[in-house]
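Action item from last meeting closed. Structure (385 res):
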């Protein structure tokens, strides 16, 4: 499988660089999705376009089990600072999270698998908007799943590039691999007035100080210490000038979790924290926006990926994923079928300090055939079981 992947390395790199030069964000990935769909049709796949707004679903094979391979296509609203021949040609947009390579490696795997005699079916899920949600708070994975992209799928796998590990390595383990994420938006209401007469007001900054203390105590004093979770404040906006106490203040933030029980408890505790404002004479409006589910890797799927990695790369080059509460909406697909996501080492010399979402992020393209081979071999082995 590695030999087959290395044989098409130039094509995979060409795809990756083309996507890198023409980044598209959110659900607005028409060019990328169009190229993906066209290429898959040339390979002989049965292709559905416009799934989950702009996603692509492609099937090959007949009967038996179905294994799905997911790749995200969207870029970030970020100005690239790399000086390379394939630098982003779109101002303010960049593939700084490696989705260009995810798409290219999945196309490479599709090309290899199209030539195999399959004992079942393979489905490719090329997804828009992993990095963002639409006006209804739904990401690309949610939209695609709602439109039946996971119907009939028995296993689902995905990969993500990792700039902290060298080429030739992967990381995988069962259990929590990334956190679920929700966002919260609040307005604290007081009573405005002159800064020289604070006793005639209900100062929303005073309310805010107490609420911040309560929010910051959620993970340290309200949750089980063994329950991974984060509650963070992202923005505070209020006031107009130095001698006026404003009527209200806006505050927003994020929360991360690895279980639905902890998610619910954090929601309740955030409301309790804002209730402090009521006790001090103010009021508040709070909205919690549901985001991505936590990503919990299935044990059976994780074991298979680890074995494939050991066989292709050597057991010493298969590691455990470093725990993180960074968010990834792949967990939505794993609500419908057992699945797992692994990481592929792509560390590039000279770019060690530039991690994902950095304007100078780049990857070593020698890793592309490795990710391609692991995807294809894992899918084949599940069909052979």
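Sequence:
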């Amino acid at each position: 499988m590695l030999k087959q992947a290395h044989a098409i390395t130039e094509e995979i790199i060409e795809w990756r660089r083309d996507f890198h030069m023409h980044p598209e964000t959110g659900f607005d990935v028409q060019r990328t999705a169009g190229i993906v769909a066209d290429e898959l049709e040339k390979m002989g796949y049965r292709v559905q376009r416009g799934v989950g707004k702009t996603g692509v679903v492609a099937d090959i094979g007949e009967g038996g089990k179905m294994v799905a391979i997911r790749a995200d296509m969207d870029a970030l609203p970020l100005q690239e600072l790399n000086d390379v021949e394939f630098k982003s040609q779109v101002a303010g947009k960049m593939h700084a999270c490696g989705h260009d390579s995810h798409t290219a490696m999945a196309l490479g795997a599709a090309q290899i698998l199209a030539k195999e005699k399959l004992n079942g079916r393979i489905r490719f899920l090329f997804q828009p908007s992993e990095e963002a949600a639409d006006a209804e708070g739904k990401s690309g994975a949610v939209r695609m799943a709602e439109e039946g992209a996971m119907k009939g799928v028995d296993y689902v796998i995905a990969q993500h590039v990792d700039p902290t590990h060298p080429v030739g390595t992967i990381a995988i383990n069962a259990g929590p691999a990334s956190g679920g994420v929700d966002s919260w938006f609040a307005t604290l209401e007081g009573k405005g007035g002159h800064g020289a007469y604070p006793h005639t007001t209900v100062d929303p900054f005073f309310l805010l100080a107490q609420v911040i203390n309560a929010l910051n105590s959620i993970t340290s004093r309200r949750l089980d210490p063994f329950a991974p979770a984060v509650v963070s404040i992202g923005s505070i906006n209020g006031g107009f000038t130095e001698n006026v106490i404003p009527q209200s203040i806006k505050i927003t933030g994020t929360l991360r979790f690895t279980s639905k029980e902890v998610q619910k408890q954090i929601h309740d505790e955030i409301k309790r924290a804002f209730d402090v404002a009521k006790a001090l004479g103010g009021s508040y409006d709070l909205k919690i926006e549901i985001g991505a589910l936590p990503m919990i890797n299935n044990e059976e799927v994780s074991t298979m990926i680890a074995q494939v990695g050991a066989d292709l790369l050597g057991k010493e080059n298969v590691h455990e994923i470093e725990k993180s509460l960074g968010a990834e909406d792949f967990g939505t697909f794993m609500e419908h079928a057992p699945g797992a996501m692994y990481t592929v080492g792509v560390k590039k010399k000279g770019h060690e300090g530039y991690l994902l979402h950095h304007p100078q992020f780049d990857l070593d393209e020698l890793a592309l055939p490795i990710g391609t081979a692991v995807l294809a071999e894992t899918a084949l082995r599940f069909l052979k079981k």
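Note appended to the action item: DSSP finds ten helices and 16 strands in the chain.
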